[in-house]
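ok so I'm stuck.
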Amino acid sequence: MIFVTGGTGLVGQHILQRLSTSGHASTALVRDDHSGHIVRSLGAKPVRGSIEDPAMWKELRNCRAIVHAAAIIAERARWETLERINVRGTALAARRASQLGVPIVHISSVAVYGRSGETPDGSVTEDFPFRTLPEREFYARSKRLAEEALWEEAAGGAACALRPCVVYGQADRLFLPKVVALANRGWLPLVGQGTRAMAIVHAESVAEAVSCALASDQAWGRAFNVTNDDDITPVDLIQAVATGLGRRIRILRVPEWTALAAAGLDDMPVSYTH
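replied:
not stuck anymore, here's the structure
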């Protein structure tokens, strides 16, 4: 039995689907009946509780691995909330994995690196040094501290951190809905020529990375960036959205910071993927 947190979120739903289709039994942490219905439909058994509750973790037994995907994804959430869920929740998950002697796969984020604009193409590898984070980048700080808690609590046990970039796919409540909302108005922003690869990844690819980590002895004690197999450029994305909506989309060429602000991608609403 694999215990999954964040099973009703974008990544979590694809993880549960992947486990189910691969023949792996799973349980998923839920807060209410609605969440329980979602995880049952994905082939998992719901378990009531919250990741910030130490008592819930003490009751967890008889699992062979923990996949920790629960997190608040919001740049402007209160720090106290991010610290409680993202940091302390991860610490409790890693501690219980260590106590049970089972591996844990933690869904982190490329946000831990800080801004990567200093590299020629804006890309980073796993050995890219962490940059100083601006004071108000609470989400990035919470994910960085969550990884620190993971390694500390795992204490040499089997732990792995996966660092996806912006995730999209079925059940997406953040990235694609904002893009589509703008496209329905007839326009989308385009930075420069729109030929540089975007830092996005499909949720199915993240779920595949989880499956690979669980199946490999080489994953433990390491962190991995997770992105698409093939490059997706802004032009590719706009064309795909236009095809999907069946309409012509006007391209507005703007500087990068203006594009992000206009699309609302720097002000994501709170999404509790639990």
